Amino acid sequence: MQELNFNITTTIVMVSVLFLIIVIRYFVFSGAYYYTTFVLFRKRLLSRILDTNPISPGQIRSEVSYSILSAVIFAIFGIGTYWLWYKGFTAIYQDLGLYPLWYIPLSVFIVLFIQDTYYYWVHRWMHIPKVYRYFHKVHHNSVQTSVWTSFSFHPLETLLQAIIIPLIILWVPLHTYALLAILIIMTISATINHAGVEIYPKGKYGSWVGKLIIGATHHDVHHRKFLCNYGLYFTFWDRLMGTERELSSKGKKFLKR
Ligand SMILES: [Zn+2]
Ligand SMILES: [Zn+2]
Known about the structure:
Strand content: under 5%
Radius of gyration: 19 Å
Oligomer: single chain
Helix content: 55-70%
Bound molecules: zinc ion
Number of helices: 12
């Protein structure tokens, strides 16, 4: 195979293609999620919508703009990561026989846990008033969140979010399938957590899921009350550090605590 030359033109083309993929993914996934929950199953999910007030078009425009800006940064980091892999600097592997098969789900969990730990502490740091203004305020401009809030961050915050995956894959052996699964989970989780509708099951399962994994209700409280519920995927750090706050009455109804 011909050696790939990472010159300026090739790099710009690759970043542009990845940017388009990321933006299309955002519109398609967020759009499909919105359509499924707020249109197709509206009647069934009506009581699970956390806030039925309409969101202003201005807020949605701003969220979409910042999300597109985030896509530029994610694309640059994505191609940077591809370069690291291409040059053999990462621990990514493709031979399924290299590690036992059970290591694939375990590696996904390990990476999600590292990312969750990193984000919990960076997130708390970003809530220090001086830092908050420059890094995190943009994301909190959305008090009532929607599917479009999922990647609406100030570029400085996006940088902090984007850097962790390349750093992890330098050290943690990951099959390409595991990496793909992580990227998909990142998208799904960001959308679910901001969509403003609780989709976790009711009753016993719901309470289990809601106790361990962050969902719309949990993250909604963060956007409304600020200094609590900082986690990304798991409730672990919020529980350990005592920063988990009560869910709204609507949330409690669905995810018994
Ligand atoms: Zn958020
Ligand atoms: Zn925050």
